[in-house]
Amino acid sequence: MLELRHLRALIAIAEEGNLTLAAERLGIQQPPLTRLLRRAEQALGVILFERHPRGMRLTAAGRTLLDGAYDVVDRLEEAVRDVGRVMRGESGELAVGFTNSAMCHPSLPAVLGDFRQRWPDVDVSLTEGNSSQLLGALRDDRVDVAFVRASIPDASDIVVEQLFDEPMVVAVPIGHALAQQVCADGIRLGDLEGEDFILYQSQYNNGLYRTIVDACHGAGFTPSIRQKGPQLMAALNLVAGGLGISIVPQSMGAHHPSQIRYLPLSKKTPLTASLYLIFRPVRMSGAKLYFIHQARKMRCHSSLKSL
Fold first, then answer.
1. Where is the HTH lysR-type domain (predicted)?
2. Residue 117: pLDDT over 80
């Protein structure tokens, strides 16, 4: 049976046309090379080279085998190179998870764009979910890194890094009475008692949903939740349709500008939307480490102009 060493020997002899030169090229002595050639011919039952005083000349069978030998060796060398690139993180896949509101912050698409330019051969897959879902995906190795709105308590196997606290704003339909008010000090949370709230159900009991509900309780009232959207953008669509108000991260303020007015909260209302970077500190390739490094820079570029 032919082996890779037989094919390499065939290529070397064919290109050098001389056993001695071929042996030197392969880093072996001539007798072992002669034995390799003989065994290859015996395995195939054909003569691969004609021996001449001036060197070795391929037979018809040898020329046919040489074409296949080049193909096999080239494919193997390409596979070896690909493996090396994967091990160095130069290719492969990066799986990124994110909550819906996290992707709406301009810093995250910028990080993804930078990564695409720096590592063009690494396939980036994106997975959206709530914080609990993404934590499970991280632990199941379905994502490599995730951006979530809820902190992860008691997670010894997970690295949790807070990137920033983003101010939250009140989103009201453009014709709403609150939209007509000009308040330099911002809206107090207590002023929203009795309003119809639209929140985003996918974050129920964690993340932004729980942050908003807890803040309302702290202000002395239970929010009247008229509608729950499956995600933050759906909630904003309902606000634009005039169904109620919502409280959203400030970075959402570019959506529906002709239908929604985004009002700042009072400085006495410390309501923010934190963004956390989570990942497992295992099997960190060069590409993954670079992505994490760039994501950490979001701390320095997270400030937004006041709305």
1. 2-59
2. yes
